[in-house]
Amino acid sequence: MASRPSDERERNESGQYADRIPARAALEVFEGRDDLARPLTATDVMEALDCSRRTAHNKLNDLVERDLLATRKIGARGRVWWIPMERSGDATGESRAAGAPREVTSEVDLPGTGETLADRRRALRTAYEYLREHPSAKKSDFLRDVFPENPAGYETAEGWWNAIQPALKDLPGVDPPKERGHIWHFLGG
Fold first, then answer.
1. Per residue in 151-177, pLDDT tens?
2. How far is CA 102 from CA 75, 95, 99, 164, in A?
3. 3-state secondary structure 126-150
4. Any bridge partners for residue 71, and if so which?
């Protein structure tokens, strides 16, 4: 990836870049790499687009909110982004509806904005995928198997569950328990 020298970009009277960088340009950085599996950092995008770190983060966060990129925190201050790949089938060879969990969870109303909202949508999607893979699950299963890797900004499992379960019960194919502590079912769909 060759970056453009900064002297090629036109600036306005205030010294700011006159041209706007669309989020699509950041996505093209991902699509144009040789190793499509390698996640990128904000610095990678910043250098490729010849823009500020803040601009790179804004473009990346916009793409995450639109479910075109996924992100994960690494270390205390690091973060990487990648283009998510949907499985075309599971271990038994059965075909899954491509993108079904992503599609049904992308417009769900959850608390938060920006990166927090994107994290919460990913947590909901992961909970939904978990229920699809384990068609009979208890609340404790979600808290044990989904919450630790997908806290979505919640410090406690209970806080997380209080935000995720109302959205989860409204997703297609989900049969929530009639009473607390009972089993959640995935009926398909």
1. 999 999 999 999 999 999 888 888 888
2. 26, 16, 5, 15
3. HHHHHHHHCCEEEHHHHHHHCHHHC
4. 81
